[in-house]
Design a protein that fits this description.
Blueprint: H1 3-15, H2 18-23, H3 29-43, E1 48-51, E2 54-57, H4 59-83, E3 90-96, H5 102-114, E4 118-124, H6 128-133, E5 139-143, E6 155-161, E7 163-168, E8 188-194, E9 197-198, H7 201-207, E10 213-218, H8 221-229, E11 235-238, E12 251-255, E13 264-270, H9 278-287
Parallel strand pairs: 3-4, 3-5, 8-10
Antiparallel strand pairs: 1-2, 5-13, 6-13, 7-11, 7-12, 8-9
């Protein structure tokens, strides 16, 4: 029996709703459903009673859950004991100006599954640059618009960014393949509001010639999507967050093609001395896909330069 299937099974049992469990795991809801089906085929019996959307453990499921919660801690303890020497361990602190991209979370989750002795501390905020240089953070995810020097050796191009408008499929604009901000002049919006600041798209609308009408300001993406799914309102999201729409089939995401939007990218920026931290160096190389290139003490490395993109 695969350990990954056991971990997924435990999380499904905790949440009882497949989509909620998937939000807390580096997999989509269909993939998690397939994993559960594989596990039930392997053990030869259903593990849950299906009641509407809820998955309630049956007697077989309760027995397997008890066994799972005995086995997994022992496996983690074993991995820690054999990997403690010669492999990275410690805590990696990561800050981000935007909600951590799902692709990045999946990468570091995969890293930790292979290195259970490593821990992550992650937070979003606008003061990450000071925290990074002050030593409180090891890495930050930074928009290139805020990156002072795109050629800095300690900045790695992680992903391009594009803005999409999100709305109900009932909206007439949902039939369009792309939109300009001016097309949304008469719409009402849900905007993100974090740490006393409204999302930058609000200012881009003003630059396009109108002040957008606001119905809600929210500090969580999930809240925004729920509001959009139950109304005719418009919201904005980065394309890297589009997988969250898998749980809201009534919503559609349409690219914004507008001169107000300068092409952006998101960079992984690290503290100058992080190359001397083994867990940080190994994690960085893992994020790069095993290509290596972490800058050494000279501050020069093949994976470093943020000169691309932008």
């Amino acid at each position: 029996m695969e350990l990954t299937l056991m971990r997924y099974f435990e999380r499904i049992a905790d949440y009882e709703i497949l989509s909620w469990a998937a939000l807390d795991l580096p997999v989509t809801k269909p993939a998690l459903s397939n994993s559960l089906h594989r596990l039930e085929e392997e053990v030869g019996t259903p593990l849950f009673d299906r009641i509407g959307r809820r998955l309630i453990l049956n007697n077989n499921g309760r027995r397997l859950l008890k066994l799972t919660r005995q086995v997994l801690p022992l496996v983690d303890q074993y991995h820690m004991s054999i990997h403690q020497r010669g492999t990275p361990h410690g805590t990696i602190s990561i800050g981000s100006q935007i909600e951590l991209p799902p692709q990045f979370i999946e990468l570091i989750t995969g890293y930790r599954l292979q290195n259970p002795h490593a821990a992550f501390q992650m937070a979003t905020g606008s003061n990450n640059s000071n925290l990074l240089h002050g030593g409180s953070l090891d890495f930050t995810l930074t928009l290139d618009i805020d990156l002072k020097d795109r050629s800095a050796a300690n900045a790695y191009l992680l992903s391009p960014l594009h803005i999409n408008a999100v709305m109900s499929r009932r909206n007439l604009l949902a039939r369009r393949s792309s939109l300009r901000l001016a097309d949304l002049r008469d719409e009402t919006f849900v905007f993100s509001w974090k740490q006393g600041s409204i999302e930058r798209t609000y200012d881009r609308c003003i630059e396009a010639g109108y002040t957008p009408t606001i119905a809600y300001l929210v500090d969580q993406t999930l809240s925004k999507l729920i509001l959009l799914s139950q109304s005719s309102l418009i919201g904005f999201m980065y394309d890297i967050e589009s997988n969250k729409l898998d749980y809201f089939p009534e919503l559609v995401s349409i690219p914004i093609q507008d001169s107000q939007f300068i092409p952006k990218a998101i960079y992984l920026v690290w503290r100058e001395d992080i190359a001397s931290c083994k867990v940080g160096r190994e994690c960085f190389n893992d994020v790069q896909g095993g290509r290596g290139g972490f800058p050494q003490e000279s501050g020069v490395g093949g994976g470093g330069g943020g000169g691309g993109g932008g």
